[in-house]
Amino acid sequence: MTMAMDEAALTAFLRDQFPQVADDFAIERTDGEALVVRLAVSDKHLRPGGTVSGPTMFALADVAIYLAILARIGPVALAVTTNCSIDFMRKPRNGADLRATARLLKLGRVLAVGDVLLHSDGLADPVARASLTYSIPADRPAVR
Amino acid sequence: MTMAMDEAALTAFLRDQFPQVADDFAIERTDGEALVVRLAVSDKHLRPGGTVSGPTMFALADVAIYLAILARIGPVALAVTTNCSIDFMRKPRNGADLRATARLLKLGRVLAVGDVLLHSDGLADPVARASLTYSIPADRPAVR
Amino acid sequence: MTMAMDEAALTAFLRDQFPQVADDFAIERTDGEALVVRLAVSDKHLRPGGTVSGPTMFALADVAIYLAILARIGPVALAVTTNCSIDFMRKPRNGADLRATARLLKLGRVLAVGDVLLHSDGLADPVARASLTYSIPADRPAVR
Amino acid sequence: MTMAMDEAALTAFLRDQFPQVADDFAIERTDGEALVVRLAVSDKHLRPGGTVSGPTMFALADVAIYLAILARIGPVALAVTTNCSIDFMRKPRNGADLRATARLLKLGRVLAVGDVLLHSDGLADPVARASLTYSIPADRPAVR
């Protein structure tokens, strides 16, 4: 499988297009199998009691699939989420970073579907799982 | 149907338990049929281009069902989201507030299920829909 | 809102295209607001103990949204389900028919999204809820 | 991880509890990592044109997670599906059998969550993915 963007290209894209959140995310790996992105958890992501908030976990799953799509088709800023189903399964460890592992299951002409597992540093079992569908603009560059 | 908390009680609870986000939300209505909560959209909720971000819409749907549950069973801070399925259907209007209308479909001993429609001020059709499941701690006060 | 097919036209379409299941379903109502379809529950739909099976409820929700789309755009046999999220909330009454009430929330150029509530005859509260996304072939007749 | 039931025990359970569908399913593998179950596709599972129907794929995903739970906790006939989110991604090959690979992500005291991939014999890419939540009766035997 040919990748259109590597870790460095995705990081640059994120900083350029999403400057307000880019510092939170570090892209650790992208290849034909999976994309791994880490969220540096800080106070703004926490609920009272120290748990990472649901919207934070949603945002991490969402960006992970978005980046996994871009890694394959190149910088298409207009790809948009149409559906997400997310299961919150365990409480993340207080203060620990989160790691998303995203796998694309379908990359079609107009729709892409992927699965994400979220892990909390120091816990073996996943804290959340999500599946997302993205709609891809018709005039995007062809998939390589 | 007896309600355990009204708009004022829910607003006070939100300010007390979630001070970092309480100012964003205004509870407009709660009764046996639905709970309506408004999000005052500001820069921090926007993506480049002026669209409200997906995590913001997720957060609004999530808080709407949470408040709809509390309105029925009283202040149970430990109720947690276990699943959310959300469909993003239309682009919200730039800068317009969002309004969530939440309906509880089930309020069981351990699980609650509800549906939410999100509307963007000035648009007739909903911009998103979501369904959420909450897990309710076993030692909560009995449902009235 | 102009409807492309009424109850009689939808019933004829179902008998023509899906003869193996058409006898199970009766279309009770279709208008701009909702489509209601009834499933005549028989032994083949039941699990041991007399409960309607999950796949049966899925099938009813699926056909209800499909028919709600056709009611609006006309007979497009190739519309296909791309996503369904379904919550099973209560046990249906033994032997009672099921009734699906489907509402379209979006009818776009390529995607349609709808919500369904399933009721068991004799129970006030819904037994299940579902949301579905359909992909619509590009060469379909224009929406009227 | 200790398994409570192996392929033979699960097969016997299925024949005993679900005699009307047991012949359709063959349990190929169960271990600590995944459970694989095959559906022998026949005419009753097909839509006009020869595609496997959506309810059939839902049923296969549902039974796969159910069996994956029983493999771990033993014969608990009363475990019930509370939520399923399923994405239909590709058309199965006409007449080909389907294979479900189910992985449990959480096996809690009252809820279990799992992911399933469905493959059509002869196609490398999955035809569908699903995630399911089961509610487990409180008086079940303890998880080993």
UniProtKB/TrEMBL annotation, chains A, B, C, D:
Q: What is this protein called?
A: Putative thioesterase superfamily protein
* Domain Thioesterase positions: 49-122
| InterPro entries attached to this UniProt entry | HotDog_dom_sf, PAAI_dom, Thioestr_dom
Q: Could you give a GO molecular-function term held by this entry?
A: acyl-CoA hydrolase activity
Q: Which organism is it from?
A: Oceaniovalibus guishaninsula JLT2003
Q: Does the keyword NAD apply?
A: no
Residues passing through the membrane, by range = 63-84
Its keywords, alphabetically, are: Hydrolase, Membrane, Transmembrane, Transmembrane helix
Q: Which SUPFAM superfamilies match?
A: Thioesterase/thiol ester dehydrase-isomerase
At the top level, the lineage of the source is Bacteria
Q: Name one Pfam family in it.
A: 4HBT
